[in-house]
From TrEMBL:
Residue span, Hexokinase N-terminal domain: 2-179
CDD domains named in the record: ASKHA_NBD_HK_meta
Membrane spanning stretches: none
InterPro entries linked: ATPase_NBD (IPR043129), Hexokinase (IPR001312), Hexokinase_BS (IPR019807), Hexokinase_C (IPR022673), Hexokinase_N (IPR022672)
GO biological process: glucose metabolic process; glycolytic process; intracellular glucose homeostasis
Catalytic activity of the protein: a D-hexose + ATP = a D-hexose 6-phosphate + ADP + H(+); D-glucose + ATP = D-glucose 6-phosphate + ADP + H(+); D-fructose + ATP = D-fructose 6-phosphate + ADP + H(+)
GO MF, one example: D-glucose binding
PROSITE patterns from the UniProt entry: HEXOKINASE_1, HEXOKINASE_2
E.C. code: 2.7.1.-
ATP-binding listed as a keyword: yes
Enzyme class: transferase
Name of the molecule in the record: Phosphotransferase
Pathway membership: Carbohydrate metabolism; hexose metabolism; Carbohydrate degradation; glycolysis; D-glyceraldehyde 3-phosphate and glycerone phosphate from D-glucose: step 1/4
Amino acid sequence: MNDMDGAIRQGLGKETNPSSIVKCYVTYVQDLPNGTERGKFLALDLGGTNFRVLLIELGENNYFHMDSEIFKVPAHIQTGKGTELFDHIAKCLAEFIKKHNLDNKKALPLGFTFSFPLRQVGLTKGYLNSWTKGFNCSGVVDEDVVRLLKEAIKRRKDVEIDVCGILNDTTGTLMSCAWKNPNTKIAVIVGTGCNACYVEKVENAELFDGDKSKPYVIVNTEWGAFGDDGKLDAVRTKYDQEIDEDSLNPGQQRFEKMISGMYMGEIVRLAIVDLANQNKLFEGRLSEQMKTKGAFGTSFVSDIESDKANYRETLKVLSEMGINDPSLVDCANVRYICECVSRRSAHLVSAGLAALLNKMDEKTVTIGVDGSVYRFHPYFHKLMVEKTKQLIKSDIKFD
């Protein structure tokens, strides 16, 4: 926790940022919603193997209506040319606009949520620092992703869209939560990836070159990179090391790889295979599915931990993985492995949250949390809350 605090402070400093692991990018977002916003807006949310296009309407008396559609990013596009990725996004945007009969005589305002490490230099300009979460499109790193999206839209010549802001998914979560609860000061995503942002005093964000007359700015920590300098080595397992070495970005995003949904199921699978090879599970027998990288999805972890006493879901998952007739002891051990991995994930997030809460030193803070792991794991919220309470100063309250 102290190491995370030090990494965040280093990321905020003008002289220390270039060598910092946790970059703490300023977002240029200084004003939070207050509930009086009105109108219709498009949103594009790109941050994993799927992306969402949304039409949001805000009205009187906290009226909120949202239509959304999920589009896939095919595997060949995730690792292909950057122009192919943005052309695909522009095509899906055009389909959504046509399907919803939106008036396109004037440019439609769009907020672009881009959930990869982003160095922002303004509300509508941001440069990709590095790909994560299995993406590796060429020609995008160190480029302005807003410009790339605008160029792809322009190539189509059939839609008019005004990209009026780019932000990280954590910033989007903080903003949407603040619309309902103005005391929201931190947001965390625990899904395919893991990241956090928070409201920082302008005087502490030394790289911020925007409006200094306003007291606060949202900082996107990009804490997924914490530990890339070896600070996590004492708690990393051989399974973490194997996942890191086999990833598209070895040596990077080590904190995220110990937490997020992209890797949680694979950590469990590696532990199961290791124990079976030691004849401590399934009498040493393994199926081809269980030996296959990526075959044990993170959703299986949630399913197994949702089990009641009869191990019904565990038996179902193991059957899908080609393990038939496991003993009750095997089922108990598989569940225990899942519990250990997910508890560690929740506690690592808690340590990061506690570092932010203690640094901010505000007496009451609302935290916005989103992401598939947080939403669908049966105990993740409880584990996070309990551990965070243990780690923060006694006079700080959060919800």
